[in-house]
Amino acid sequence: MQRQFVLAIWGRETAFGSHKSNYYVVKALATQAYLGRRKDLFRTELLYALKMLQDGVRTRETMTGSWAGAMGLTQFMPSEYYTVAYDLDGDGRKDIWGSVADALGSAANQLRAKGWVPNQSWGYEVRLPKDVSCLLEGPDNGRPLREWVKLGVVRASGDFPHLALDQQAFVLTPAGAYGPAFLALENFLVIKRYNMSDLYALFVGSLGDRMAGGTAFVTPWADVQQLSAKGIEGIQEGLKGLGYKVSIIDGKAGMNTRSLIGAYQKANSLKVDCWPTEALLTHVRAKAPAKAPPVKGADAGRDGAAPTPSPPATRDVR
Questions:
Q1: Residues near 56 by Cβ (< 8 Å), separated by ≥ 6?
Q2: Cα distance between the two ends of the chain
Q3: pLDDT in tens, 265-298
Q4: pTM, 2 dp
Q5: Which of 57, 139, 186, 306 is in Cβ range 3.0-4.6 Å of 243 for a Cys bridge?
Q6: Class for the domain spanning 123-211
Q7: CB 221 within 8 A of CB 179
């Protein structure tokens, strides 16, 4: 795989090794397993962390990492150490803490295991025509890149590589209508499997491009504030109660949430910007039923609040 994206992950995770988190990993994982949102995941990771101690991979004193239990130069969870860590320097140890070669080789191996497509980029900054908006955001609306070109989508700087035209691509608008737009490819989703944040994947992809001689984004980011996590949860709950297919209520304005916000705005003759605001939260709460069970099929829209049929399901991303 392309080396620049592995280097970008190293830079994003630990500032090329200069940042070190000092949480005791066993305690951090136990806390998340008891109090966190993803208890089953962290219980499994806790068992792997204890196995690392048992196997002598780390000691009580050196078993340090992030608040979520990630360790090493490229931040591996304990289970990932056992499944994809790689001894690139050939010294017989998988040292993701002290060996840059092992850490980078392990990160590359993890991306490969998660489905990295060789010789493919992560995506391209684009300019969208008026008929293609944030309403079409997300992998569920993906199509070959050449079809987006036929719809009037153009690259923000230069032309699309000829070999990319047959690759599956989807619209990505991380700031709704208030920032750059992209056509993202499968490798964007692969980076997200390393870390589920849209902005993480965008950072890694952009930094990798810059390392390889690329330029900064052409379209500037507007000075807009994102609603609090609690407020976004309120919008998600309200939309779900109105029949919209919200994939997860997590307080994060991911692709699924942004596209459904756009669908709601269009259905209610509001400005379509696919962005969570206090005004939108107030509007959704006024429309939503007092108790918000999911509304399906013919029931959706009986109170005039939701479109029929309900918007297509899309996967949520952070």
A1: none
A2: 25
A3: 999 999 999 999 999 999 999 998 865 454 444 3
A4: 0.86
A5: 306
A6: mainly alpha
A7: yes
